[in-house]
Each structure stands twice: as C-alpha cells, then as structure tokens.
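Supplementary Methods. Inverse-folding protocol.

Structures were first reduced to a discrete structure-token string of length 494. This string, shown here, constituted the complete conditioning input.
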C-alpha cells in the first residue's frame, strides 16, 4: 500500500559526493523510485554537493541518465515523473573541508526550505571514508547540522567502510559524535535493505517449523558465501586499502550471520532487534589465524576473455598482499550454537556471482532405507540473496516406481515467480527508513564494535606478518586450501 510519509513536514536531502558512482547509480535512482511511489513528502528537495563544477542543469542531466522507470511504465508518463522529480534537485560545488563552501550550501537550502513547517535535513555522506570527518565538521561549522526542537531534525547517513579496524572505527565513531548524536547517525549496510535479508527474521520467527530445529542439535553447519566473477576493476585503488575481509566479510556477511544466529527479539522495536544482533555478534569468537585462508586472483582466460591478475590492476602496488578472497570458519559460543561451524567465504574474480546462506542440517539418524540408492542426504535450506532471490529446501523424496529409491529434490521459492510487482532496491528501502526515522536496519555503534572485534586480531596478524595470499586463477573456485579448511570441520563449500 502506498503511504505518504508526512504531508505536513518538509524534507531536504543533501548528498555529499553527489558526482560519485554511488550517488548517481544508487542514491538518486532510489529517491526517484520513492518519489514515483509517493513516499516522499510533498515538500522535498534534493541537493547534490561535490567539488566537480556543475550547473543545476548539468547535474540534472547526469541524474537523468541513470533514473529508470521501474514504477512508472509508459514512456511519456515516466518522462513526466522524471522532469517533475528533477525540478526538486539542485547542485552546488565545494570542497569537503570548507566552511565557506558549506555556508553557500546553507544559503541555497534556506532559499528553498519553507519557513513555517517542521523540517528534516538528511545528510548522505557518499564520499570516500577519509572525508567523512572533514565533511561532518564543515557541516557543523557552517551551521547546517543544527537542530531546533520541534522545528528542525537532522540525520546523517554514513556509508561503509566504517574504519579499517576496531581502533580506526572507534576514532570515526568518536569524531562523528562531535557533530551527530548516535540517534541521528544511520550507518548503512545495503545488504540489510535486500528483501531476502529482511525476510530472514520473518522466515525464522513467523514460521513454526524452523525455529525448533534452529540449533546445534539439528544443524550440522552453516555456510555464508559471497562471490563475484569480476575483479577489483575501477575500484582497485580503494579496494587495495581495504581488501575482501573489510569490504565484505566484516559487514555484509557478519550481518547475515547475526540475523541467522540471533535470538527472537521482544518485538520489532529497532533497539530490541539491534540488542539481539549485538548479543549474537558478541558470542562469536574472534577469528584466529588458523581459522582463515586468504587468496589473490591471478591472470587467466575466463569465458573467452583474458583477465588481468589483481597485481596488474591499475592502482595496485606490485607487491600488494591484499586478499581478494577469504574463507574463514567462525564459532558462536552460546547454548544454541556451540560446536556448529559457520563457514564464511567472499571472493572476487571467481567463477560465478552469488550470495547465499546455506543451513545444512544433520544426517538423519538410523537410516531405515537400506542400500546406496536409499541413503538420505542432509536437508539443506538455501537462502539465495542474489542474483535470483529466493529460498529453497532440499528434501529427500521417493522416486515414483516399484522400488524404494530416494532422490534429493528441491522445494523452490523464487521471488521473481512468487511475488508480482517490482522488488524494491535495497537503497529504496533503506532511504525510506531514514526518512521515516526507523533505525532497525542500520548498524548501531556497539554492533560495529562487536563486528570489528571478530576480525581485527586476524587482520593485524595477516598484515603484520605480511602473509602472502594464495594465488588462484581468475574464474576459478578460489584457492584449494579453502577446501581443506572446510574439511577440517567436516563441511564443504558446495
Ligand atoms: N559505489 C558503490 O557501489 C558503493 C557501495 C558501497 C559503499 N560505497 C561507499 O560509498 C561512498 C561513495 O562511494 P562512491 O563509489 O560514489 O565513491 P567515489 O565515486 O569514489 O567518490 C564520491 C565522490 O567523492 C569525491 N572524491 C572521490 N575521491 C576523492 C578524493 N581523493 N578527494 C576528494 N574528493 C574525492 C568525488 O567528487 P568530486 O571530485 O566531485 O568532489 C567523487 O565523485 C564510499 O564511502 C564508498 O566506500 C560505495
């Protein structure tokens, strides 16, 4: 059902770093989608801010090239919506550490913001992380982030990565807290906005059949895997500073792990949900050196094309030890999960693009079906995050016929087939939550601390000892030693 957020308040969305990839490809298209679905207040304006000089018209042209008509089929109607939306978009250029440039932005905002209605200002820091603090400080110095009780509310959205380790993350949290309070701060992990991830709590807590089995007595192991069949490409400079553990595992994959392992919250109050996630993350033992395998892709022919190795990517130092692949085994030390291995892998330059969670159940005890064609396979519940969002459950079935032959078959829920209509993009869902002030799907400071505590020690070991990542061919399944790691825990990656 369509819902107007608030007819009576006014909204200013300020995207800092508006010339960038994320702003143009994700943030503005998501805002346009909310506009088309009448989910933004009638009085709203979007302001782009970055150093690149652009007029409003040039900025609108840039945005126009990436808006799409998912919610407004029909070319002429869509064009009308786009033109209408773009009339609400403005641009001003400036430096991220310049109080004067941000004061010019403040003047522009004041020109458009109605004086007589309650106002929400939403600042989206879509800039490289080293600019978060200078930009926040300039917003503060120029008076842009000042709140007026009952009249003006300010919120800030910060993109990951939130630091490089526990220490730098804490420093970032402290620095941002000088300008924005914790309740004003929305740390975004766009995986939490994905439909299938949002469905995890529903799957677990709105169905009777899973929860009684959701524990160490019935689950053999859990696998959370993320892979891409592309390399670091245009982002290699950025990527080399972070690597796959910080870029994917510490945030996206740990968030999935938290949702799989957490206890049922008291209700859906954002703080109650996040309390349970923090408890789940706090129960995870920090990853040790012997629990992880790291790799780096090398040049190879893949699908008829010569692919560069990571060390040949532009912006990557020739002696880089940054992992493009990591596989780890995590342990959750609590009554529900003790002894269950959580296998986690993330890699670029692999042979497929896929994000999935596998809940692998234990073998059925005391098999009454004799013979090799009658051995039950363990059930496997698969939550497919991308590309083909869905949920499937492998079950054993008798093959129709005169003999008892068992076969593994799949109950498959494909989102595309089951749900009519467009599935919202993660950024649409998350931006709407920021507009509404709902923080359930955003990372709280203590959640971030708990997530960094899991990976910071092993990152330090890998980097201080300059551990060489194991080479794997672009387009392969990753380093073979990951299989040995899984085998140590009687598990596999397939
Ligand atoms: N792109 C994605 O899909 C994605 C996904 C998840 C998270 N993120 C995070 O979202 C944020 C924005 O991502 P992005 O891909 O849009 O970044 P980006 O394109 O590299 O940077 C955004 C803007 O920041 C300014 N900028 C970039 N490098 C700068 C530098 N060295 N000094 C000063 N200004 C600089 C540029 O604008 P001007 O030159 O015009 O000032 C650029 O257009 C980052 O924190 C990133 O880690 C991005």
């Amino acid at each position: 059902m369509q819902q107007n957020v608030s007819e009576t308040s006014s909204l200013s969305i300020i995207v800092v770093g508006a010339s960038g990839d994320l702003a143009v490809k994700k943030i503005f298209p998501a805002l346009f989608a909310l506009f088309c679905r009448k989910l933004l207040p009638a009085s709203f304006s979007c302001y782009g801010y970055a150093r690149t000089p652009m007029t409003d018209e040039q900025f609108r042209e840039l945005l126009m090239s990436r808006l799409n008509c998912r919610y407004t089929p029909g070319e002429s109607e869509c064009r009308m919506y786009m033109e209408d939306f773009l009339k609400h978009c403005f641009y001003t250029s400036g430096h991220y550490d310049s109080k004067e440039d941000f004061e010019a932005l403040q003047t522009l905002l004041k020109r458009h913001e109605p004086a007589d209605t309650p106002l929400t200002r939403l600042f989206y820091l879509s800039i490289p992380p080293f600019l978060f603090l200078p930009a926040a400080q300039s917003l503060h110095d120029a008076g842009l982030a000042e709140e007026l009780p009952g009249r003006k509310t300010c919120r800030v959205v910060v993109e990951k990565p939130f630091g490089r380790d526990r220490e730098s993350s804490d420093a970032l949290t402290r620095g941002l807290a000088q300008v924005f309070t914790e309740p004003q701060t929305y740390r975004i992990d766009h995986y939490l906005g994905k439909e299938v991830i949002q469905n995890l709590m529903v799957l677990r807590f709105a169905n009777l059949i899973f929860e009684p089995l959701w524990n160490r007595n019935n689950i053999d192991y859990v696998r959370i895997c993320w892979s891409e069949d592309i390399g670091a490409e245009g982002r290699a400079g950025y990527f080399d500073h972070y690597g796959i553990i910080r870029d994917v595992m510490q945030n996206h994959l740990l968030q999935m792990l938290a949702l799989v392992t957490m206890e049922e919250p008291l209700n859906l109050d954002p703080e109650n949900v996040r309390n349970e996630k923090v408890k789940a993350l706090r129960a995870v033992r920090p990853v040790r050196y012997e629990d992880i395998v790291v790799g780096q892709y090398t040049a190879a022919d893949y699908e008829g094309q010569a692919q560069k190795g990571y060390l040949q990517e532009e912006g990557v130092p020739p002696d880089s030890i940054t992992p493009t692949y990591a596989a780890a085994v995590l342990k959750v030390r609590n009554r529900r999960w003790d002894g269950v291995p959580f296998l986690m892998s993330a890699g670029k330059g692999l042979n497929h693009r896929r994000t999935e969670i596998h809940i692998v159940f234990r073998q059925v005890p005391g098999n009454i079906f004799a013979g090799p064609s009658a051995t039950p396979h363990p059930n496997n519940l698969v939550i497919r995050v991308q590309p083909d969002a869905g949920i499937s459950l492998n079950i054993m079935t008798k093959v129709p016929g005169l003999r008892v032959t068992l076969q593994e078959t799949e109950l498959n829920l494909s989102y595309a087939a089951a749900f009519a209509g467009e599935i919202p993009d993660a950024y649409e869902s998350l931006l709407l939550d920021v507009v509404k002030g709902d923080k359930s799907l955003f990372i709280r400071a203590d959640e971030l601390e708990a997530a960094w505590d899991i990976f910071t020690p092993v990152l330090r070991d890998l980097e201080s000892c300059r551990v060489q990542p194991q080479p794997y061919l672009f387009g392969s399944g990753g380093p073979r030693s990951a299989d040995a790691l899984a085998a140590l825990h009687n598990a596999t990656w397939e």
